[in-house]
Structure prediction request, 630 residues.
Amino acid sequence: MLSDFGIILLFILAAFAFISLVLFGASFLRPDRPNVEKMSTYESGEEPVGNANVQFNIRFYVVALIFVLFDVELVFLFPWATVFGQKTLINETKGLWGWFSLAEMSIFVLTLALGLAYAWVKGYLSWVKPQQKIPTVDTKVPQSLYDQVNKKYQPKAKASQPASGTV
Amino acid sequence: MLPIILLSVFGIVLLFMGFLKSKVLLLPATLVFILAALATTFMDWGKTYLYFQNMLLTNNLAILFTTIVLLSAFMVVALSNSFIEDEQAQPAEYYALLLFSLVGAIMMISFENLIMLFVGVEILSVAMYVLAGSDKHSPRSNEAALKYFLMGAFATGIMLFGIALLYGATGTFVVSGIKSYVYTNAYGVSLLLYMGIILLLIGMLFKVSAAPFHFWTPDVYDGTPGLFTAFMSTVVKTAGFAALFRVLSVSFVGVYSFWWGTLAALTCLTLLIGNVTAVYQTSFKRMMAYSSISHAGYLLIGLTALGTQTKQALVFYSLAYSLATISAFGVLLVVSRQRQDTNGVNENFDAFNGLARQNPLLGFVMAVSMLSLAGIPLTAGFWGKFMIFTTAADKGIYWILVFAVLMSTVGIYYYFRVIIAMYFREGAAEPVKVAPFYRYVLIAATILTLVLGLAPGLLEGLV
Prediction:
């Protein structure tokens, strides 16, 4: 007789066996004709640029933190819902159980909402836009002359070229 | 368990009080909140209650430890008037975090379920990580917060692993359930239990900064703003030892022969490292960090020689240590802020030069607190050490007693350096200005130290 852990072990072994069978089986059966485009990272043709280990903007962390907070809240709601809806408990207490568990959950959710309100009022949710630094040149030529030249020699926008390239 | 609920609600209230234009109300409100929590703590006096489906247990010992923790917090908050003047400080957030960390401390003191211990440790630690880095513009404060966070998170992980192994061995998280498991299987205890005890001990000893898990202490205590260092070295330590005592004296007393040797070795190591390294410090704050390591060693003696007298000794010692530490940091705070050198605040020994001549009161407060920490008679620290050493003598562990006495003579050397600087050195001519309320708090702590030193029987028979 297998114990509960024995069944889990069987599951793990079966998973390994299945994966290796499918992957090796497929590599034996399929034709193998690689070319440069097939070997690229994205089949859509997007070329990867630079390293993935770059510094992220600190603003993302605040959003991530608040997201995790509400994600965890949601996880708590699921087991609560099964307890909340138990018919036997509700019948035994003549409906008091439902009100009790509802009140408990509202206290929990309200406390988290207070936290969100705090972060909101403090301004942690507003997405601070970076100030654009427009380069200035110390020269006697007036700005209007530059604008004229820029307008005259403005590259004609091609239909295929993305708009961002011209700015 | 009203204080836990009250402190949580008060913390949220304080957060939102921070939106008021005036910051004047914050400090008195926090003091009132802590006093209210303290008052409700005593509602359970003389009884033993289990709360929240056997999650928490209150008895007289837990109430006494809670009182020490809340009293320390009250004094630390009362010394925090400098926040109001500081433009960059966020007093509402600091006070709220202090109250939240007190919730964690009370959970650590009165847990009955090991999960509650873990939750309490986390609540206390996370608040302390933030407070360690509260001086956002100081690189030292940032370094302290990062160091404390990384190492503390690791230690908490080890502790949680220990709790999981204990569950694997005994099938329960409840402290008294583990006790009955140990007693019913006295000769065939599972190996998992031993592993669990060791890992749990490592996690907790890290929190109370016992050697060899003390490496974070000097840097963190040094970099953290002085006020929060005072909080850290009193509240966290008291709560940590209360938790250690509960888990060792209830759950693991049946396997005393297994863990006492390990704990005795760590005690001696802690005493040695704390006292000997403190001698070489030039910064007073760093010296206090090593002194807190050495005091963790003295408290560990009480646990190593676990007996009937241990709880009384631990309560008395924690109270004496907290009072002396807070008044020492209180004096350091005003002195270091007003006698600045080229690097900003001066926290070295030479900041105290000639202090007793210009400020006889500050000098006296500091002298009493140093004497108490060194364990000189007529102060509370002496009776604390006396009781701790008595537990070791009762248990017949004389070698640890001899070692501890030797180490406390080393302690006299570095505590007296401050007294010598204050009374026998020439220093700045202008006296240090002290706000009236600040002065009352320091005087109260000093008087309590002296009263406990003259009448140590006051706390007798309470636990």
In short: The radius of gyration of chain A is 30 Å. Residues 73 and 117 of chain A are 15 Å apart (CA to CA). Chain A touches chain B through four residues (CB under 8 Å).
